[in-house]
Amino acid sequence: MDKLIIDGGVRLKGSVEVSGAKNAALPILAATLLADEKSVIKNVPTSLLDVITMVKIIRYLGAKVEVQGNTITVEPKGYKGCTAPYKFVSTMRASICLLGPLLGKQKYAEVSFPGGCVIGPRPVDLHLKGIKALGAKVKIYGGYIIADGRNLRGSHVYLGGHFGSSVLATANVMMAATLTKGRTIIENAACEPEVVDLAHFLKQMGAKIEGESTHKIEIEGVKKLAGAEHMLIADRIETGTYMIGAAITDGDIVIKKANPNHCIALIDKLREAGVSITFGKNEIHVRKTRSLKPVDVTTLPYPGFPTDMQAQFMSLMCVTKGISVITEKIYPERFMHLSELNRMGANIILEGPTAIVKGVKNLSGAPLMASDLRASAALVLAGLAGKGKSEVLRVYHLDRGYEDMEKKLSRLGAKIWREKE
Protein backbone atom coordinates (compact mmCIF):
# COMPACT_ATOMS: atom_id res chain seq x y z
CA MET A 1 0.00 0.00 0.00
CA ASP A 2 1.03 3.59 -0.60
CA LYS A 3 1.27 6.49 1.81
CA LEU A 4 1.57 10.22 1.34
CA ILE A 5 4.33 12.24 2.98
CA ILE A 6 3.57 15.91 3.56
CA ASP A 7 6.02 18.55 4.75
CA GLY A 8 3.55 21.18 5.92
CA GLY A 9 3.58 24.93 6.26
CA VAL A 10 3.81 25.84 2.56
CA ARG A 11 1.41 28.42 1.10
CA LEU A 12 -0.46 27.09 -1.95
CA LYS A 13 -0.24 29.36 -5.00
CA GLY A 14 -1.06 28.97 -8.69
CA SER A 15 -3.82 27.25 -10.63
CA VAL A 16 -5.30 23.76 -10.61
CA GLU A 17 -7.80 21.99 -12.88
CA VAL A 18 -10.54 19.86 -11.38
CA SER A 19 -11.50 16.56 -12.94
CA GLY A 20 -14.90 15.30 -14.01
CA ALA A 21 -17.26 14.34 -11.20
CA LYS A 22 -16.76 10.81 -9.91
CA ASN A 23 -20.26 10.78 -8.43
CA ALA A 24 -21.69 11.64 -11.85
CA ALA A 25 -19.41 9.28 -13.78
CA LEU A 26 -20.46 6.10 -11.98
CA PRO A 27 -24.26 6.20 -12.54
CA ILE A 28 -23.79 7.57 -16.07
CA LEU A 29 -21.44 4.70 -16.94
CA ALA A 30 -24.03 2.31 -15.51
CA ALA A 31 -26.73 4.03 -17.59
CA THR A 32 -24.90 3.21 -20.83
CA LEU A 33 -26.18 -0.35 -20.32
CA LEU A 34 -29.72 0.87 -21.01
CA ALA A 35 -28.92 1.71 -24.65
CA ASP A 36 -28.92 -0.38 -27.81
CA GLU A 37 -25.93 1.50 -29.21
CA LYS A 38 -22.56 2.75 -28.02
CA SER A 39 -22.18 5.81 -25.82
CA VAL A 40 -19.16 8.09 -25.43
CA ILE A 41 -18.56 9.68 -22.03
CA LYS A 42 -15.97 12.49 -21.85
CA ASN A 43 -14.16 14.21 -18.98
CA VAL A 44 -14.13 10.97 -16.99
CA PRO A 45 -11.58 10.70 -14.14
CA THR A 46 -10.39 7.36 -15.52
CA SER A 47 -7.53 6.84 -13.06
CA LEU A 48 -9.85 6.71 -10.03
CA LEU A 49 -10.22 3.29 -8.45
CA ASP A 50 -14.02 3.57 -8.37
CA VAL A 51 -14.16 4.31 -12.10
CA ILE A 52 -11.76 1.44 -12.83
CA THR A 53 -14.01 -0.86 -10.78
CA MET A 54 -17.13 0.26 -12.64
CA VAL A 55 -15.41 -0.43 -15.97
CA LYS A 56 -14.51 -3.92 -14.75
CA ILE A 57 -18.13 -4.62 -13.79
CA ILE A 58 -19.50 -3.40 -17.12
CA ARG A 59 -17.02 -5.61 -18.95
CA TYR A 60 -17.92 -8.54 -16.69
CA LEU A 61 -21.56 -8.08 -17.70
CA GLY A 62 -20.53 -8.51 -21.32
CA ALA A 63 -20.41 -4.97 -22.71
CA LYS A 64 -17.35 -3.71 -24.58
CA VAL A 65 -15.52 -0.82 -22.96
CA GLU A 66 -12.73 1.27 -24.43
CA VAL A 67 -10.78 3.76 -22.31
CA GLN A 68 -8.72 6.44 -24.04
CA GLY A 69 -7.41 9.23 -21.85
CA ASN A 70 -10.41 10.75 -20.11
CA THR A 71 -12.93 9.31 -22.57
CA ILE A 72 -14.80 6.03 -22.08
CA THR A 73 -16.76 4.39 -24.89
CA VAL A 74 -19.26 1.68 -23.96
CA GLU A 75 -20.74 -0.66 -26.58
CA PRO A 76 -23.54 -2.51 -24.76
CA LYS A 77 -25.03 -4.31 -27.75
CA GLY A 78 -25.53 -7.97 -26.99
CA TYR A 79 -24.48 -8.00 -23.34
CA LYS A 80 -26.28 -10.70 -21.38
CA GLY A 81 -24.96 -10.41 -17.85
CA CYS A 82 -27.31 -9.61 -14.98
CA THR A 83 -24.98 -10.09 -11.98
CA ALA A 84 -22.73 -7.52 -10.32
CA PRO A 85 -20.53 -9.81 -8.19
CA TYR A 86 -19.24 -9.36 -4.68
CA LYS A 87 -15.58 -9.26 -5.73
CA PHE A 88 -16.22 -5.89 -7.41
CA VAL A 89 -19.16 -4.46 -5.51
CA SER A 90 -17.57 -5.05 -2.09
CA THR A 91 -15.09 -2.23 -2.72
CA MET A 92 -17.48 0.43 -4.00
CA ARG A 93 -20.88 1.44 -2.69
CA ALA A 94 -21.87 3.25 -5.90
CA SER A 95 -22.00 -0.07 -7.74
CA ILE A 96 -25.55 -0.35 -6.34
CA CYS A 97 -26.48 2.01 -9.20
CA LEU A 98 -26.29 -0.96 -11.59
CA LEU A 99 -29.55 -2.22 -10.11
CA GLY A 100 -31.72 0.22 -12.07
CA PRO A 101 -30.13 -0.26 -15.53
CA LEU A 102 -30.13 -4.05 -15.25
CA LEU A 103 -33.79 -4.09 -14.20
CA GLY A 104 -34.76 -1.62 -16.91
CA LYS A 105 -32.94 -3.37 -19.73
CA GLN A 106 -32.62 -7.03 -18.74
CA LYS A 107 -35.67 -7.14 -16.44
CA TYR A 108 -33.56 -9.04 -13.91
CA ALA A 109 -30.67 -8.13 -11.62
CA GLU A 110 -28.43 -9.72 -9.04
CA VAL A 111 -26.32 -7.10 -7.27
CA SER A 112 -24.17 -7.83 -4.25
CA PHE A 113 -24.70 -5.69 -1.19
CA PRO A 114 -22.25 -2.80 -1.63
CA GLY A 115 -19.12 -1.93 0.29
CA GLY A 116 -17.04 1.26 0.26
CA CYS A 117 -16.09 3.71 2.99
CA VAL A 118 -16.79 3.12 6.67
CA ILE A 119 -18.78 6.25 7.51
CA GLY A 120 -21.69 4.73 9.39
CA PRO A 121 -24.80 2.83 8.27
CA ARG A 122 -25.93 3.52 4.70
CA PRO A 123 -28.88 1.20 4.13
CA VAL A 124 -30.22 0.27 0.70
CA ASP A 125 -33.84 0.41 1.86
CA LEU A 126 -34.76 3.34 -0.42
CA HIS A 127 -33.33 1.52 -3.44
CA LEU A 128 -35.45 -1.53 -2.66
CA LYS A 129 -38.51 0.58 -1.86
CA GLY A 130 -38.16 2.37 -5.19
CA ILE A 131 -37.84 -0.67 -7.43
CA LYS A 132 -40.58 -2.51 -5.53
CA ALA A 133 -42.87 0.46 -6.21
CA LEU A 134 -42.17 -0.09 -9.91
CA GLY A 135 -43.33 -3.69 -9.57
CA ALA A 136 -40.05 -5.55 -9.08
CA LYS A 137 -40.10 -8.70 -6.96
CA VAL A 138 -37.13 -8.52 -4.61
CA LYS A 139 -35.46 -11.01 -2.31
CA ILE A 140 -32.18 -11.02 -0.42
CA TYR A 141 -30.16 -14.20 -0.66
CA GLY A 142 -26.49 -15.01 -0.10
CA GLY A 143 -25.55 -11.36 0.30
CA TYR A 144 -27.17 -10.40 -3.01
CA ILE A 145 -30.16 -8.26 -3.95
CA ILE A 146 -32.09 -10.39 -6.45
CA ALA A 147 -34.74 -8.48 -8.37
CA ASP A 148 -37.21 -9.74 -10.98
CA GLY A 149 -38.42 -6.88 -13.18
CA ARG A 150 -40.61 -8.72 -15.69
CA ASN A 151 -43.71 -6.91 -14.41
CA LEU A 152 -42.32 -3.39 -14.09
CA ARG A 153 -44.81 -0.59 -14.58
CA GLY A 154 -44.83 3.17 -14.12
CA SER A 155 -45.76 4.19 -10.60
CA HIS A 156 -45.78 6.91 -7.97
CA VAL A 157 -42.60 6.49 -5.89
CA TYR A 158 -41.82 8.31 -2.64
CA LEU A 159 -38.12 8.26 -1.72
CA GLY A 160 -38.12 10.04 1.62
CA GLY A 161 -35.59 8.54 4.02
CA HIS A 162 -34.59 9.04 7.64
CA PHE A 163 -31.86 11.48 6.60
CA GLY A 164 -33.50 12.93 3.51
CA SER A 165 -33.47 11.94 -0.14
CA SER A 166 -31.00 9.48 -1.66
CA VAL A 167 -28.92 10.32 -4.73
CA LEU A 168 -28.29 6.76 -5.87
CA ALA A 169 -31.81 5.55 -5.06
CA THR A 170 -33.15 8.41 -7.18
CA ALA A 171 -30.73 7.44 -9.94
CA ASN A 172 -31.75 3.77 -9.79
CA VAL A 173 -35.48 4.45 -10.00
CA MET A 174 -34.99 7.03 -12.75
CA MET A 175 -32.87 4.64 -14.84
CA ALA A 176 -35.21 1.70 -14.39
CA ALA A 177 -38.24 3.85 -15.21
CA THR A 178 -36.85 5.07 -18.56
CA LEU A 179 -37.57 1.66 -20.14
CA THR A 180 -40.66 0.88 -18.05
CA LYS A 181 -44.10 1.29 -19.62
CA GLY A 182 -46.17 4.07 -18.13
CA ARG A 183 -45.47 7.24 -16.17
CA THR A 184 -43.29 7.24 -13.06
CA ILE A 185 -43.28 10.10 -10.59
CA ILE A 186 -40.48 10.24 -8.02
CA GLU A 187 -41.41 12.34 -5.00
CA ASN A 188 -38.72 13.62 -2.63
CA ALA A 189 -36.17 12.92 -5.35
CA ALA A 190 -32.58 14.00 -4.83
CA CYS A 191 -31.71 17.11 -6.83
CA GLU A 192 -27.91 17.04 -6.62
CA PRO A 193 -25.99 18.17 -9.74
CA GLU A 194 -24.96 14.55 -10.32
CA VAL A 195 -28.61 13.49 -10.56
CA VAL A 196 -29.27 16.34 -13.00
CA ASP A 197 -26.25 15.31 -15.08
CA LEU A 198 -27.55 11.74 -15.24
CA ALA A 199 -30.97 13.00 -16.34
CA HIS A 200 -29.37 15.09 -19.07
CA PHE A 201 -27.49 12.04 -20.34
CA LEU A 202 -30.62 9.89 -20.31
CA LYS A 203 -32.53 12.57 -22.21
CA GLN A 204 -29.78 12.66 -24.84
CA MET A 205 -30.36 8.89 -25.18
CA GLY A 206 -34.06 9.50 -25.83
CA ALA A 207 -35.54 9.24 -22.34
CA LYS A 208 -38.53 11.40 -21.47
CA ILE A 209 -37.75 13.06 -18.15
CA GLU A 210 -39.06 16.24 -16.55
CA GLY A 211 -38.32 17.95 -13.24
CA GLU A 212 -34.67 17.06 -12.75
CA SER A 213 -33.11 19.57 -10.33
CA THR A 214 -36.36 19.50 -8.31
CA HIS A 215 -37.71 17.10 -5.69
CA LYS A 216 -40.32 15.80 -8.14
CA ILE A 217 -39.06 13.97 -11.22
CA GLU A 218 -41.43 12.57 -13.83
CA ILE A 219 -40.44 9.88 -16.35
CA GLU A 220 -42.49 8.58 -19.25
CA GLY A 221 -41.20 5.15 -20.25
CA VAL A 222 -39.98 4.57 -23.80
CA LYS A 223 -39.40 1.33 -25.71
CA LYS A 224 -35.70 1.81 -26.34
CA LEU A 225 -32.80 4.18 -25.83
CA ALA A 226 -30.03 5.12 -28.24
CA GLY A 227 -26.40 5.76 -27.45
CA ALA A 228 -25.24 9.32 -26.72
CA GLU A 229 -22.14 11.45 -26.32
CA HIS A 230 -21.87 13.31 -23.03
CA MET A 231 -19.44 15.59 -21.18
CA LEU A 232 -19.39 15.06 -17.41
CA ILE A 233 -19.79 17.99 -15.04
CA ALA A 234 -16.86 19.11 -12.90
CA ASP A 235 -16.34 17.44 -9.54
CA ARG A 236 -17.78 19.83 -6.96
CA ILE A 237 -16.23 17.96 -4.04
CA GLU A 238 -12.74 18.12 -5.54
CA THR A 239 -13.40 21.80 -6.25
CA GLY A 240 -14.39 22.37 -2.63
CA THR A 241 -11.37 20.48 -1.33
CA TYR A 242 -8.97 22.76 -3.22
CA MET A 243 -10.91 25.82 -2.08
CA ILE A 244 -10.28 24.78 1.51
CA GLY A 245 -6.67 23.99 0.57
CA ALA A 246 -6.20 27.65 -0.32
CA ALA A 247 -7.86 28.84 2.89
CA ILE A 248 -6.03 26.50 5.26
CA THR A 249 -2.57 27.35 3.88
CA ASP A 250 -3.04 31.14 3.60
CA GLY A 251 -3.00 30.45 -0.11
CA ASP A 252 -4.00 32.12 -3.35
CA ILE A 253 -5.18 29.73 -6.06
CA VAL A 254 -7.35 29.66 -9.17
CA ILE A 255 -9.45 26.53 -9.62
CA LYS A 256 -10.13 25.94 -13.31
CA LYS A 257 -12.89 23.98 -15.07
CA ALA A 258 -15.02 24.46 -11.95
CA ASN A 259 -18.71 25.29 -11.62
CA PRO A 260 -19.29 27.66 -8.68
CA ASN A 261 -23.06 27.20 -8.97
CA HIS A 262 -22.61 23.66 -7.65
CA CYS A 263 -20.67 24.86 -4.57
CA ILE A 264 -22.91 27.66 -3.28
CA ALA A 265 -23.35 26.37 0.28
CA LEU A 266 -19.60 25.85 0.78
CA ILE A 267 -18.77 29.20 -0.83
CA ASP A 268 -21.25 30.90 1.51
CA LYS A 269 -19.63 29.35 4.60
CA LEU A 270 -16.09 30.11 3.43
CA ARG A 271 -17.01 33.73 2.80
CA GLU A 272 -18.67 33.86 6.20
CA ALA A 273 -15.36 32.66 7.65
CA GLY A 274 -13.52 35.47 5.84
CA VAL A 275 -12.16 33.77 2.72
CA SER A 276 -12.05 35.87 -0.47
CA ILE A 277 -13.79 34.08 -3.36
CA THR A 278 -14.32 35.54 -6.83
CA PHE A 279 -15.42 34.01 -10.12
CA GLY A 280 -14.15 34.00 -13.68
CA LYS A 281 -15.31 31.99 -16.67
CA ASN A 282 -15.42 28.36 -15.43
CA GLU A 283 -12.99 29.19 -12.64
CA ILE A 284 -12.93 30.18 -8.99
CA HIS A 285 -10.27 32.41 -7.41
CA VAL A 286 -9.76 31.66 -3.70
CA ARG A 287 -7.55 33.73 -1.39
CA LYS A 288 -7.06 34.04 2.32
CA THR A 289 -6.62 37.77 2.86
CA ARG A 290 -7.28 38.11 6.60
CA SER A 291 -7.67 36.15 9.81
CA LEU A 292 -10.50 33.66 9.68
CA LYS A 293 -13.38 33.42 12.11
CA PRO A 294 -15.24 30.28 13.23
CA VAL A 295 -18.38 29.22 11.40
CA ASP A 296 -21.07 26.72 12.37
CA VAL A 297 -22.05 24.13 9.75
CA THR A 298 -24.85 21.57 9.44
CA THR A 299 -24.73 19.06 6.59
CA LEU A 300 -27.92 18.71 4.58
CA PRO A 301 -29.04 17.33 1.21
CA TYR A 302 -28.27 19.53 -1.79
CA PRO A 303 -28.36 22.51 -2.03
CA GLY A 304 -27.38 22.42 1.64
CA PHE A 305 -23.83 22.01 2.91
CA PRO A 306 -22.55 18.67 1.53
CA THR A 307 -21.67 15.84 3.87
CA ASP A 308 -18.74 15.09 1.55
CA MET A 309 -17.17 18.44 2.59
CA GLN A 310 -17.73 18.08 6.33
CA ALA A 311 -14.35 16.52 7.13
CA GLN A 312 -12.37 19.00 5.03
CA PHE A 313 -14.20 21.96 6.56
CA MET A 314 -13.44 20.59 10.01
CA SER A 315 -9.73 20.65 9.21
CA LEU A 316 -10.04 24.36 8.40
CA MET A 317 -11.94 25.12 11.60
CA CYS A 318 -9.23 23.30 13.59
CA VAL A 319 -6.82 26.19 12.81
CA THR A 320 -9.42 28.98 13.00
CA LYS A 321 -9.43 30.92 16.27
CA GLY A 322 -12.64 30.49 18.25
CA ILE A 323 -15.27 27.76 18.57
CA SER A 324 -17.22 26.27 15.69
CA VAL A 325 -19.96 23.66 15.75
CA ILE A 326 -20.23 21.07 12.97
CA THR A 327 -23.37 18.91 12.89
CA GLU A 328 -23.66 15.87 10.61
CA LYS A 329 -27.27 15.17 9.62
CA ILE A 330 -26.65 12.87 6.66
CA TYR A 331 -24.30 10.26 8.19
CA PRO A 332 -24.29 10.96 11.97
CA GLU A 333 -21.32 8.64 12.55
CA ARG A 334 -19.11 10.22 9.90
CA PHE A 335 -16.42 11.45 12.29
CA MET A 336 -13.62 8.90 11.89
CA HIS A 337 -11.21 11.74 11.05
CA LEU A 338 -11.80 13.48 14.39
CA SER A 339 -9.40 11.36 16.44
CA GLU A 340 -6.66 11.70 13.82
CA LEU A 341 -7.00 15.49 13.78
CA ASN A 342 -6.80 15.53 17.58
CA ARG A 343 -3.54 13.58 17.31
CA MET A 344 -2.18 16.52 15.34
CA GLY A 345 -3.04 18.87 18.21
CA ALA A 346 -6.60 19.81 17.27
CA ASN A 347 -9.16 20.34 20.02
CA ILE A 348 -12.39 18.61 18.98
CA ILE A 349 -15.08 17.13 21.21
CA LEU A 350 -17.81 14.90 19.80
CA GLU A 351 -21.32 15.04 21.23
CA GLY A 352 -23.58 12.70 19.28
CA PRO A 353 -23.82 13.91 15.68
CA THR A 354 -22.13 17.22 16.57
CA ALA A 355 -18.44 18.10 16.73
CA ILE A 356 -17.38 21.11 18.78
CA VAL A 357 -14.13 22.49 17.41
CA LYS A 358 -11.97 24.89 19.38
CA GLY A 359 -9.40 26.36 17.04
CA VAL A 360 -5.70 26.06 17.85
CA LYS A 361 -2.80 28.16 16.62
CA ASN A 362 -1.01 25.31 14.88
CA LEU A 363 -1.34 21.64 14.05
CA SER A 364 1.75 19.44 14.18
CA GLY A 365 2.74 16.76 11.72
CA ALA A 366 2.01 13.18 12.73
CA PRO A 367 1.45 9.67 11.34
CA LEU A 368 -2.20 9.55 10.28
CA MET A 369 -4.54 6.70 9.35
CA ALA A 370 -7.14 7.41 6.65
CA SER A 371 -10.51 5.75 7.31
CA ASP A 372 -12.53 6.82 4.28
CA LEU A 373 -12.38 8.92 1.14
CA ARG A 374 -13.25 12.38 2.43
CA ALA A 375 -11.48 11.83 5.75
CA SER A 376 -8.34 11.15 3.69
CA ALA A 377 -8.69 14.54 2.03
CA ALA A 378 -9.21 16.20 5.41
CA LEU A 379 -6.00 14.68 6.75
CA VAL A 380 -4.06 15.80 3.67
CA LEU A 381 -5.36 19.35 4.18
CA ALA A 382 -4.42 19.24 7.86
CA GLY A 383 -0.97 17.97 6.90
CA LEU A 384 -0.53 20.88 4.47
CA ALA A 385 -1.31 23.32 7.28
CA GLY A 386 0.64 21.51 10.00
CA LYS A 387 4.16 22.15 11.20
CA GLY A 388 6.58 19.35 10.33
CA LYS A 389 6.00 16.13 8.43
CA SER A 390 2.85 14.07 8.31
CA GLU A 391 2.34 10.59 6.89
CA VAL A 392 -1.12 9.68 5.63
CA LEU A 393 -1.53 5.91 5.47
CA ARG A 394 -4.12 3.89 3.53
CA VAL A 395 -4.34 6.43 0.71
CA TYR A 396 -6.15 3.86 -1.43
CA HIS A 397 -9.24 5.57 0.02
CA LEU A 398 -8.05 8.86 -1.50
CA ASP A 399 -7.37 7.18 -4.84
CA ARG A 400 -11.05 6.24 -5.04
CA GLY A 401 -12.12 9.86 -5.41
CA TYR A 402 -9.25 12.26 -6.19
CA GLU A 403 -7.35 12.12 -9.45
CA ASP A 404 -3.60 12.79 -9.06
CA MET A 405 -4.11 14.77 -5.87
CA GLU A 406 -0.47 14.85 -4.81
CA LYS A 407 0.62 15.92 -8.30
CA LYS A 408 -1.92 18.72 -8.42
CA LEU A 409 -0.93 19.91 -4.96
CA SER A 410 2.76 19.74 -5.87
CA ARG A 411 2.12 22.05 -8.82
CA LEU A 412 0.59 24.49 -6.32
CA GLY A 413 3.84 24.42 -4.33
CA ALA A 414 3.00 21.81 -1.70
CA LYS A 415 5.76 19.53 -0.47
CA ILE A 416 3.93 16.23 -0.87
CA TRP A 417 4.95 12.91 -2.34
CA ARG A 418 3.96 9.25 -2.44
CA GLU A 419 5.90 6.32 -1.01
CA LYS A 420 5.28 2.65 -0.33
CA GLU A 421 4.29 1.85 3.24
UniProtKB/TrEMBL annotation:
CDD domains tied to this protein: UdpNAET (cd01555)
Location relative to the cell: Cytoplasm
Any one of the GO CC terms: cytoplasm
Keyword annotations: Cell cycle, Cell division, Cell shape, Cell wall biogenesis/degradation, Cytoplasm, Peptidoglycan synthesis, Pyruvate, Transferase
Highest taxon above the source species: Bacteria
InterPro entries named in the record: Enolpyruvate_Tfrase_dom (IPR001986), Enolpyruvate_Tfrase_sf (IPR036968), MurA_subfamily (IPR050068), RNA3'P_cycl/enolpyr_Trfase_a/b (IPR013792), UDP_GlcNAc_COvinyl_MurA (IPR005750)
Residue positions of the active site: 117
Enolpyruvate transferase domain boundaries: 7-409
One GO biological process term: cell wall organization
Protein's UniProt name: UDP-N-acetylglucosamine 1-carboxyvinyltransferase
Pfam family, one: EPSP_synthase
GO MF entry, a single one: UDP-N-acetylglucosamine 1-carboxyvinyltransferase activity
Function comment: Cell wall formation. Adds enolpyruvyl to UDP-N-acetylglucosamine.
EC number: 2.5.1.7
EC class name: transferase
Source lineage: Bacteria, Pseudomonadati, Candidatus Omnitrophota, Candidatus Aquitaenariimonas
Organism: Candidatus Aquitaenariimonas noxiae
Pathway annotation from the record: Cell wall biogenesis; peptidoglycan biosynthesis
Reactions that this protein is recorded to catalyse: phosphoenolpyruvate + UDP-N-acetyl-alpha-D-glucosamine = UDP-N-acetyl-3-O-(1-carboxyvinyl)-alpha-D-glucosamine + phosphate
2-(S-cysteinyl)pyruvic acid O-phosphothioketal: residues bearing it: 117
Residues bound to phosphoenolpyruvate: 22-23
Amino-acid positions noted as binding UDP-N-acetyl-alpha-D-glucosamine in the UniProt annotation, renumbered to this chain: 93, 122-126, 308, 330
Family label: Belongs to the EPSP synthase family. MurA subfamily.
